[in-house]
Design brief:
mainly alpha, 7 helices
Amino acid sequence: MKRFLLRLHTSRGARAACAAVAAGAALAGAAYLYVHDPHSHPLPCIYLMLTGFYCPGCGAGRASYALLHGRFAEAFCYNPLMVIFLPLLLLYIGARTLDWVITGEDHVDYKISIRFLVAVLVLALIYGVLRNIPVFPFTLLAPGGFAQIL
């Protein structure tokens, strides 16, 4: 194991191969989700089952399925926060991976403000609270809520 980690640290080719395997696994997961409809085979949310409240991620599986099929409005209806933040997350993962493959170091994380990360976390927590308030307009934030007006 130590030899493998040393090889990853010193070899750009090994890092590229590792990144390619991770990208392949992500593509395999996307392909699986593309053909397996979460409406007929839903992934249960443990938080929802235990508390009866939606978590900030509730609806993300159905939103991802809709995005993979090009139905952006439907995806937004299931989890608006995820649809808004997904491009930022993909940009971060791409930049971080590319930086690691090329340099073997982490130069990206130091460029991201701690205040920004805290703001995203606070926004997700507030979103998780607001989507459980059973009064319009907060009901729009529940999974499928925006379908009421679209």
